[in-house]
Amino acid sequence: LDSPGHRCFIKNMGVGASLADVAVLIVSAKHGEFEDGFQKGGTKEERLPGMTREELVLARSLGVKQLIVVINKMDAINWDQPRFEEIREEVLRFASRPPVGFAADAVA
C-alpha cells in the first residue's frame, strides 16, 4: 500500500491496510521532515498529529500485524548514525506502546 503522507490519501491507505498483514513505513531522516510527520498533536498549537503517527495507529487498528520501518534520505544527513538511532528509537517506542501496540518482535 502506498500513502504519500498527505491527509487526502488516508482513505486509500485505510482500504489497503485493511487487506495487509505487513506494512512498510518509510520515514525521512531529514531534520524537520521526521519531526513534522511525528508531531504529537492534540494541543492548541498542533491540533493534528503528524501523518506518521496517524498511519501507524490506523494500520494497526485495521489489522496489520507486522511493521518494517525504513529510514530514508540518510544521504541528506551525511549518514549520521546518532540521527538514525534517534529516529529508530522514537518510532519503535511509539509503535510498541498503546494505542498502536505492535509486538516488539513484529517491528523491524
Task: Please describe the structure with a list of short key phrases separated by commas or semicolons.
single chain, 108 residues, globular
What report would you give on this structure?
With 108 residues, the chain is α+β, with helices and mostly antiparallel strands. Helix content is 37%, strand content 13%. It is built from 4 helices and 2 strands, in the order H-E-H-H-E-H. The chain has helices at residues 10-17, 33-38, 51-61, 81-95, and strands spanning 22-28, 66-72. The chain has a two-stranded parallel sheet. Helix 1 packs parallel to helix 3. The longest helix is centred in the last third of the chain and has 15 residues, at 81-95. The chain is globular. The two termini are 18 Å apart. The model has no long low-confidence stretch (mean pLDDT 82).
